[in-house]
């Protein structure tokens, strides 16, 4: 299959796979349910598979697009250009708070490039207070990891950090044939609802992320070994946790407890 689609060649370095399946597109639009007057933001609009039907249902849409050719194509779009606020930028470095409005929180959606999806999600979590919901097409394995419970092989740092920031609701699974070029993996759409009140009290989200990263970096290690530069065995036991436990058995609450003790003892 040619990688040229609607006159644009998919760029591997941007992780471009263009959605073209009408049923999948309409299912995603139904899930987003865009309304006039909302503060809608699309990341990576590409060839407009979601952009056009969203614009049919709303009066304005901000899009963040890194590819200059695709941004130019949208600027000259015969039907929707007047509704678009086109930001030519790298979403990984973009300040989403600059689009926020106290009265109108952001509704973010997109078919995210799979090669940067995890760091991009972490970047977006830092703006969670400005966002009412997010709908993303991601690699199916990533969605499984986001929603995973303790004790499962999919459970890891992404699970803990996503579930700290958001309620995770898988929406639908999408086969490779829905894209051109077809990716080598299955995809899925997920709905993320940032919490107004977090499910656990964490003094520093950065510290929680550090503890998760260190604990899951070598999954087979016990937390006594993986966290030994942060806490000793007695300190872990004093928290009611088993130093012989592995990271994949700890809950979000357990990680929050560890992170808070480490943060408090660091004096930061």
TrEMBL record:
GO terms for molecular function: 16S rRNA (adenine(1518)-N(6)/adenine(1519)-N(6))-dimethyltransferase activity; RNA binding. It is found in: Cytoplasm. Specifically dimethylates two adjacent adenosines (A1518 and A1519) in the loop of a conserved hairpin near the 3'-end of 16S rRNA in the 30S particle. May play a critical role in biogenesis of 30S subunits. Its main location: cytoplasm. S-adenosyl-L-methionine binds at residues 17, 19, 44, 65, 90, 111. PROSITE patterns: RRNA_A_DIMETH, SAM_RNA_A_N6_MT. Pfam families: RrnaAD (PF00398). It catalyses: adenosine(1518)/adenosine(1519) in 16S rRNA + 4 S-adenosyl-L-methionine = N(6)-dimethyladenosine(1518)/N(6)-dimethyladenosine(1519) in 16S rRNA + 4 S-adenosyl-L-homocysteine + 4 H(+). It comes from Lacimicrobium alkaliphilum. It is an enzyme of class 2 (transferase). Its EC number is 2.1.1.182. This is Ribosomal RNA small subunit methyltransferase A.
